[in-house]
Amino acid sequence: MELLDLTALQLGQKIKNGEIGVREAAAASLNRIRAAEPAIHSFVSFDEEAALARADEIQKKISAGELLSPLAGVPMAVKDNICTKGVAT
Question: Quick check: helix, strand or coil at residue 87?
Answer without folding.
Answer: strand
